[in-house]
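step 4 of 6: structure.
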Amino acid sequence: MEALYAMKAWELQDMIDRGEVSVSEVLDAVLARLEQVENEVHSYITLTLDAARAAAAEADRARDGGKSPGAAAGIPMAIKDVLCTRGIRTTCGSRILEEYIPVYDATVLERLRHAGLVLVGKANMDEFAMGSSTENSAYGPTRNPWDLERVPGGSSGGSAAAVAAGEAIWALGSDTGGSIRQPASFCGLVGMKPTYGLVSRYGLVAFASSLDQVGPIARDVRDCALLLSLIAGHDRRDSTSLRLEPPDYLSAMQGDIRGLRVGMPRELMQEGLTPGVRKAMEDCLQKFEQLGAEVDEATLPNLDYALSAYYIIAPAEASSNLARFDGVRYGLRVEGAEDMMEMYGRTRAAGFGPEVKRRIMLGTYALSAGYYEAYYGQAQKVRTLIIRDFDAAYEKYDILVSPTTPTPAFALGEKVEDPLAMYLSDVCTIPVNLAGIPAISIPCGLEDGLPVGLQIMGKVLDETTVLRAARVMEEALAFREKPGSGKGVGA
Amino acid sequence: MIEPKDVEYVAWLARLDVSEEEKEKFTRQLGQVLEHAEKIKSLDTEDVDPTSHAIPLKNVMREDETGPCLSQEEALSGAPRTQGGYFVVPRII
């Protein structure tokens, strides 16, 4: 039998329901694994082991008393350190929040607690979710469990590494330009960015408010759907939250994909793909056809402009959002300043890392008098054009597919001094955030022992079709690889 | 293109002290990113409306009702310095 820490949430839930294993036993297995690999992988910023043990014991007592312990019970979980957790330090990977202890829970945390959450800890991330490698964390980088010399992706790199290494069964991340899908792809996992507004952002520390969305990182599509069902739904505390009752994704995603119209945007299959990624994509398209889908080349003509528009819009929103870190109400303050202005300048210089400073500067520049129209205004118009491109494509196709990333995981240090090269690694995921549509990444092959991801994009609020296509493809692709014990942490 | 004095001005707008070394580095790096972003200027967007949110929402209204909220103590619990229920800040003028 597979080790408990390596099993899927739904498998563990079945075993717990049948009384074959207790929640505490599952947690102990995960914590023993954590003890073994955390020094090498560094998935977590803060561990909450005592609270996890208490939650597991409570779930066991509830079950012994004949009560259902809740849909998330018994499933040790990692939460990206960008989501506020009441009474538990929430750093966002930043020095400026090193001692910040929220006085409230994010809505998604509240929902998970009602469902019996067993929280292992707060996962490492690029500072304020800005980055694609988790190297921008003030608490040191996370390493890829498949190859410890490589990055796990980012910004939700700690969440993905924890699940891939067996230090959590599933996790939450946040995705502003690919920050769930890219690390899921780099770590051989399933990761989903839901439609903008499907999941509450209340208590998610804001990076770029019009692009941010919380979503699941899991070991298969079924777990991903299960976790999405637990967190989706309207929240009156988030004014951008959509007023709707989400379906039960688990039952809604059943069925085959015969006759499904699959478009492959040619702009996402152009330059920069490694041979292994290209080959994996070709195999995927063949699989789609064998499964009865109709595959065709699609076009999103303005996609070439998406990256540029994103790297104006996201920093602009970030520079505005991060103005709240002023050394007054929470977070770091550098003492000894003569006046307010000096305190602001010194506090923010000491509290923010290089990438966050860079994006604040870029955003402030793009919003400043004389440049606003040329940069920010124009980028917002380009955003409209990209949405129109997707609308036109979805008249012909039910889903669009692409690689999640042009290359598998890159080496630590490879791009950290070259921001533009780092930004270019998000070229396939960014358009999805600009358009607000849902997208998933599932593992679809290996290149030189490193996982490759397939991205499936859907229409607004059509998570069901995305999940169905992902589930059917997952079964057909039968990706069963695990991190090796040579370069990686072993299974 | 962007110059060190632009970086200095933007850093002031952003309330962010930058060292001489950072000034030099940001001048170069922001220049690179902005050069890449120049690309969008070439698009004809004369008749295109800007998008601020991908999923259009009208004004979101709800009843203004009191509900549970943070106590003064909780609200101040993260502040670096407080006194008598207030945030303490350095001299402003």
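step 5 of 6: annotate
 - The first helix of chain A runs from residue 9 to 17.
 - Residues 4-257+439-477 of chain A form a domain with the Amidase signature (AS) enzymes fold (CATH 3.90.1300.10).
step 6 of 6: archive
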